[in-house]
Specification:
The protein is of the alpha/beta class. Helices cover 43% and strands 18% of the residues. Residues 193-197 have low confidence and may be disordered. It comes from Natronolimnohabitans innermongolicus JCM 12255.
Length: 197
């Protein structure tokens, strides 16, 4: 069993949902997981207590959460000593047309923090029209029209989720397998088969 930290920054809750799903996959594989919002990390928080770290952030107005950038910058040396992954949630990742833009945000983040995660995942976000005021709803509709070419039919009174949950779970399983291999941990499936003849 490995101990995982899943730290995330979220604007409207979708990145938190993604972080939670990643944590669930890791737990199902028999690992211990601590999921933390970057805004709630205390100065004495020690990532050395974890075998592996996943960091997630969403994109708002072309930027990641400052708390996530600050965390990565402050812990960069420790992150370099263990298996790591970065996942990003954005409308740009909602369809093929925005993938290059989403990848560009990741490149900017890596350059700004001088951190090179072992694995990277890009996931579509969500539009929470029910939580927006009138002006923000109008702005978000315009952003969605520019960034999502295959916009589902929905009026601006409902929420739209673009996250591919199968993709999120596959990413989490890939990260788990990578960490298990790097740390020399027998994967759970092999454990289950060990006593079967």
């Amino acid at each position: 069993m490995a101990t995982f930290l899943v730290l995330y920054g979220t604007g409207e809750g979708q990145t938190e949902k993604v972080a939670t799903r990643i944590g669930d996959v890791l737990i199902d594989r028999g690992h211990e997981v601590t999921t933390v919002d970057a805004n709630e990390v205390s100065p004495e928080f020690a990532i050395d207590d974890f075998d592996a770290v996943l960091v997630g952030a969403s994109i708002h107005a072309g930027k990641h959460q400052p708390s996530v950038r600050e965390f990565v910058t402050a812990t960069r040396d420790s992150l370099a000593t263990k298996p790591t992954a970065f996942f990003q949630v954005s409308l740009s990742s909602a369809d093929e047309g925005g993938k290059a833009q989403a990848a560009g945000y990741v490149e900017e983040f890596i350059e700004a923090t001088d951190w090179n995660p072992d694995r990277i995942g890009l996931f579509g976000g969500a539009l929470r029209y029910t939580e927006y005021g009138f002006l923000k709803r109008l702005v978000m509709k315009q952003i969605a029209k520019r960034n999502v070419t295959e916009m589902p039919d929905a009026d601006s009174a409902g929420d739209i989720e673009f996250t591919d949950w199968d993709e999120v779970e596959a990413f989490a399983a890939d990260v788990a397998a990578f960490v298990e291999g790097r740390l020399g941990i027998t994967p759970p499936a092999a454990d289950d088969q060990a006593g079967v003849e």
